[in-house]
Write a structure and sequence with these properties.
14 helices; DNA polymerase, domain 1; 2 domains; about 325 residues; seven-stranded mixed beta sheet; binds S-adenosylmethionine
Length: about 325
Amino acid sequence: MDINHIPVLGDKVVGFLKPKSDGIYIDGTVGLGGHSTAILKASAPNGHVFGIDLDTDALTVAKDRLQIFADRFSLINGNFAEMNVLLESHAIHAVDGILLDLGVSSLQLDAPHRGFSFNHTGPLDMRMNPGHENDTDAKTMLTAMQVVNDSTVDVLVDIFKRYGEERFAKRIAHRIVAARRHEPITTTTQLANIVTQSVPKGGSKIHPATRVFQALRIYVNAELENLMAGLDAAVTLLKPNGCLCVITFHSLEDRIVKHRFQTWARMCLCPPKTPICICQHNPSVEILTKRPVLPDVTEVQHNPRSRSAKLRVARKL
Ligand SMILES: C[S@@+](CC[C@H](N)C(=O)[O-])C[C@H]1O[C@@H](n2cnc3c(N)ncnc32)[C@H](O)[C@@H]1O
């Protein structure tokens, strides 16, 4: 398994966070610990990082890789949407900087048994937190297999359109329902083949199943709902001058971050035609990235997965 993970836009994130030696930071998506490592190095000798992840496999790898920072990091298995509650249990009520690096890690994508990738044959799972026998949260979450085999055509169409912006959502959904009448769709390869057969050939440079896999992953993990809740939790936890850095990988996520930042930064939230402001809203952040920061050519060459990354940063006022 390749764990030589390069943190996307790592230098840029550190440049905005400006980690201090007495600072406390949250890495809400610790993954393989790449960004946490960079923040811990930059905040030596005393800066502390709280690293949150849904995935216990990722936390096992991160724990090993962050060992050299001794007692300057704490790893928490949980959802960044609840970061304020998670940090409260560590008696932390305010922090100096927060990072969310959204999506899946290479560890998850490259592990066939997790079912995230059409490049590897595996069970259609896609839960970021597959959990253990006694983990009730994970047990109540649907797997991609359940979604694909148990949803109506209309629900599948809605998922593929809403979370994958898939043009051929209807055709794909009908093919899935026809195929599962013969046998359940249980593997990534089965699903990828059905999607490939449903769409016109040669229409796009990306694999025909890319959007359907993205849509199922977002739906299974409630990624957009978690993002909205995570942004709100983050802004309340930041100390004045603390920065929130968010790295997104597709337009649905980026749109949410952009609009949330704009709302926080606005002087007034009254409807457009209100003659005099009655909301008395005060901006809570300054947006530091008028346009999103993108990886440069060298980074994309070294780490092709960074090519769709966009970093947006807001500073708490
Ligand atoms: C792109 S990876 C992060 C990689 C990390 N920045 C690094 O340098 O290694 C995203 C990670 O976020 C985790 N994740 C996604 N959504 C989450 C959520 N709502 N709460 C906590 N962790 C989440 C995933 O399990 C995955 O490990």
